[in-house]
Amino acid sequence: MSTPDLVIRGGTIADGRGGELIEADVAITGGRISEVGKVSAKGKEEIDARGKLVTPGFVDVHTHYDGQVTWSQDITPSSQNGVTTAIMGNCGVGFAPCKPVDHVRLIQLMEGVEDIPEPVLSAGIPWAWESFPDYMDWLSKRDFDIDVGAQLPHAALRVYVMGERGARRDPSTAEDNAAMAKLAGEAVRSGALGFSTSRTLNHRTSTGDFTPTLKAGEDELTAIAGAMHSQGRSVLQFVLDLSTLHEDLPMMLRVADSTKCPISFSITQNDKAPTRWRQTLDEINAAAKRGLSITAQIAARPVGLLLGLELSRNPFQTHPSYRRIAHLPLKERLARLHQSDLRKAILSETATSTDDPLFFRPNYDKMFLLGDPPDYEQPPENALGPQARKQGRQPEELAYEAMLSDEGKGMLYVPFLNYADGNLDATREMLIDPQSVPGLSDGGAHCGIICDASFPTYLLTHWTRDRKRGERLTIPFVVAAQSRKTALSVGLTDRGLIAPGYKADVNVIDYDRLHLHPPKVHYDLPVGGRRLLQDVDGYEATIVSGVVTRRHGEATGQRPGKLIRGAQGGELGA
Fold this sequence. Notes:
Blueprint: E1 6-13, E2 22-29, E3 32-37, E4 45-48, E5 53-56, E6 58-60, H1 68-71, E7 83-88, H2 103-114, H3 118-124, H4 132-140, E8 147-153, H5 154-162, H6 164-167, H7 174-189, E9 194-199, H8 218-230, E10 235-240, H9 245-259, E11 263-267, H10 276-289, E12 294-298, E13 303-307, H11 320-323, H12 330-337, H13 340-348, H14 384-391, H15 395-408, E14 412-417, H16 425-432, E15 436-438, H17 455-466, H18 475-489, E16 506-509, E17 515-525, E18 529-537, E19 539-544, E20 547-551, E21 554-555
Parallel strand pairs: 1-4, 1-5, 6-7, 7-8, 8-9, 9-10, 10-11, 11-12, 12-15
Antiparallel strand pairs: 1-2, 2-3, 5-16, 13-14, 16-19, 17-18, 19-20, 20-21
Helix pairs in contact: 5-7, 7-8, 8-9, 14-15, 17-18
């Protein structure tokens, strides 16, 4: 027997199938798992995993690293949270195909939709491509700390073919549809795992324009999805608005039915219709029984805004007195905000109207201090509104003081999806639905307002160990959901299992120590750009294609990750 490259000894294995935990060794040879059980051969390298949880690497199907992969080889923060495969190009936004004249347009769209600052994108993206196949060829020459897969973004495709007409959301012609379909087929042949689109009013450019794909016709979507799926397995990923769900979901199901293209879309609980998610899941389960391949992407916790002086939004940003100092550097702004006259003026004013889709008129009964460790499932009485009433004060005062804490780095937390009931019971029901997978982490995006790339870690810490306000989930279930099940949903049958023959993407986790720290702002993007990150403890080792990329929470500098070219591992089965 040949000497294994790596042996993981004596770990407690959640193998990705969802069955009982087992204690075993794992041998890895040539980037593949070669043996699971009692491994007698000594490895060239060995990891003592006794008392540790051993899982497949996590597959995150909803990220936005389209820009970051062009300037960085380390796909953080996802790679810090046990993710070994990340799928980017979601929500219809990305950077290929793109003509030089449209570089600024696509940057403004990404900045507006995903809150990635324009200076970062302008400085970081080299624009060494025009077509989508060119983009894939360029990326294929790069090495990463995880594998990355790409989807063809509808907005980029539409603008590339239709120009200004596409950007202003004109209906496409038959000639436009044929041109988009041809390019979509080429994208799949070059390795695209899918196609993504958006139909939500919340997705706007940084200049306030709606996304080019908002009202794209059924004929357009059918032409594109059909052309892609005819060239190989391809997933259609989309985002819908609650207000138009009754029209858009049946249309997307018709597209899936006519093209046989698998579809995947986000489901969340919305405060305006807090039980609509259940009806939506019933509809997609009925569609699945009719033979459609359909997956719901579910957020692991509330989708919540982080507000603060160092961040993109804060509760007082539309108050006239605050707006007069908003341009000042943080240190100067903080000094002014400590002045009693300015404090009194700001607190006497009210929020004014704005068309910013991510500025919610402050509801202090839904605004929390996140705490340390961060608590994403706090009871309603913890909110600033009830706390202020209890103290005989105004909630605005508590918010103001919280933001000034920690030298102006204090943050407020506003859960705006998946928290209509003041708990995560609905989220649990969504997660256990047979048609759902964990999703919506948005890794690489929302740099100054949302910090959800830690979803994979949160699924393990909160849902299997720490939850106190309701039922938990089991470790085998959670591991299978975010490794094997997510992998299969995007056509990657070669990973997500700890079993002989499968890709050696593995996590060794000190489960008892696994812990998320509060979000903090870092200035480590191109040109000193800002992003929210959460430190995490407990990942003893992360292994990609048999190579240890992170050890004891630190990067090893090894980058075996590659661009994924199309669906993988058909010979291994589903």
